[in-house]
Amino acid sequence: MSPLLAGVALLMLASALQFSLLAVRGEAEGFSEWVTASMATCYFLGFLVGGWLAPRMIDSVGHVRVFSALASLASVVILVQAFAVDPPAWLVARIASGFCIAGMVTSVEAWLNAASDTSNRGTTLALYMVVMYLGFGGGQVLIGLGDAEGFGLFALVSVLLSLCLVPVLLGAREGQVIHLRAGISTRELMRRAPVGLAASLSGGLAWGVIASMLIVVGLREGYGSGQSASIVLAAVVGAVLSQLPIGRLSDRVDRRKVVLATALATVAVAVAGMPLITSGRLWSVWLLAALLGALALPGYSLGIAHVGDVLTPRESVSAAGTLVTVSALGSAAGPPLAGAAIGIMGSPGVPALFAVLGTLLAAFSWWHLFAVSRVRPRGQFVALAARATPMGSTVVAEEIAGSEEPITFDEPGPARPSPP
Question: What pLDDT sits at residue 195?
């Protein structure tokens, strides 16, 4: 498992540095906040498509070939962006980057699932998610190693994407194919687990804003590129520290109450933090970012866990793909909403957006908490990144629901229909 996690860490370092680098370079080139937000949206749309297609690609040619091909393509895409500094070219490149990284992450998740069983899968995935968050946070530090207006940092992203191949390929065993079940419809999920669906959407939207727009806020407030990237790092650290405490609390009480409490806390922090973001004190911006990350990002994990409480094991597994779609759409919507908020209110528009988001989620959760009978936790919370692939979410859904029919891995060959 260690080689795979090392590869994930390198991949997340590259992904995080790419996010920050393009935001800083775009600011230097005079790109508007709308263009910067659109680039992030394109990335998440590419990620959505990649997460949907990757299992089918893996089923066709295997994990090793998919991971290798997409890593090579992603390495080329960032170099193209270094030479073609033009908004239309970058928008297309971000779609390609999102597609590639989604496919690579799905491949790794499939290997991790094959190397674990029901007795240790929750621990394995929790460790995996922590590595992803820490890798993404560490990537923010790398922006200070060079000049965003030069070629060096673009080359560093390409190098990291190439290096992530080494531990993954050395630690991989060729030959396992995944078969995924079809997803439950969004309408059906909205009818039976509305709070889980809303929490997943909210968590995805929060991730889209934090990953792509916090650094823009830092640059607008006059902080350097390294200091602006550290604001994103603070949000990620907050999310890492809050995942397990919030998850353990949700294992003991109705998860909808936890969703409601975190949403109300998000509103309070966001409203109180609006003056802090323009205070000129970096530590206060760090504190605000850490609290918003700690309260808003666990929404996706809470959504998955709530779905495991109200659906049957088989339905919980099939619902994972629907939750991924909803979360990815939220991540794609987050950057343009934040860009519009910044355009109207300036930097305080970002915490204002979190306040609106928290208010809507709190109102929705409050209504369903008292309109629908209490739901007792039936499974165990597993920390999951707001941005997840169908593979990872499906595995987690099985872990939470205690499914007696786990995902199967077979030797290479033509895909076989699932047994009735």
Answer: 87
pLDDT of residue 264: 95
Cα 7 to Cα 161: distance, rounded to the nearest angstrom: 9
Cβ 143 vs Cβ 229: under 8 Å: yes
One-letter amino acid for residue 134 of the chain: L
Regions of the chain with pLDDT less than 50: 118, 122, 174-182, 317, 375-376, 403-420
Cβ(334)–Cβ(206) below 8 Å: yes
Say how far residue 315 (Cα) sits from the centre of its chain. 23
What is the sign of the dihedral through the CA atoms of 28, 236, 153 and 146? Answer: positive
Q: What ranges in 29-120 are assigned the alpha helix state H?
A: 33-61, 63-83, 87-114
Residue 84's φ and ψ, nearest 5 degrees, are -105, 80
Burial string for 264-300 (b: 16+ CB within 10 Å, else e) reads bbbbebbeebbebbeeeebeebbbbbbbbbbbbbbbb
Q: Render 302-347 in DSSP notation, one character per residue.
A: HHHHHHHHHS-HHHHHHHHHHHHHHHHHHHHHHHHHHHHHHHHHST
Whether 238 and 292 have beta carbons less than 8 Å apart is answered as: yes
CB neighbour class for 419 (10 Å; exposed up to 12, middle 13-18, buried from 19): exposed
Residue 180 token pair = 């995924």
pLDDT digits (tens, 9 = 90+) for 66-109: 888 999 999 999 888 888 888 888 899 999 998 998 888 877 76
Secondary element (H or E) of residue 172: none
How crowded is residue 371: how many other Cβ atoms within 10 Å of its Cβ?
A: 8
What was the pLDDT predicted at 299?
82
Name the token pair of 411.
């030797």
